[in-house]
Write a structure and sequence with these properties.
Blueprint lengths: L1 H13 L28 H6 L2 E3 L6 E3 H15 L2
Antiparallel strand pairs: 1-2
């Protein structure tokens, strides 16, 4: 999956198409798409959270892996 993402990113750069990056990627659930608004935490508290459970669908998420999956989903959506 990593190779595909890098290839897709390079392709989008060459085509001058926008790549979906956003600060809110860590707050979106890659499973259900719900924006969890940092779960009521301030910014510094949220940055310390590495894993969380989506209050909408209940899926347990690693913040970095979840953000990568959200970016991949957004990248595939703009194809």
């Amino acid at each position: 999956m990593e190779i595909f993402f890098v290839d897709q990113f390079t392709y989008l750069q060459k085509k001058k198409r926008p790549v979906a990056f956003s600060v809110s990627n860590t707050k979106l659930c890659a499973n259900c798409g719900k924006n969890n608004h940092r779960l009521g935490l301030n910014k510094s508290e949220w940055l310390a959270v590495r894993e969380w459970d989506c209050p909408n669908c209940g899926k347990h998420l690693d913040r970095d892996i979840n953000a990568a999956q959200v970016i991949l989903q957004k990248g595939l959506a703009i194809r």
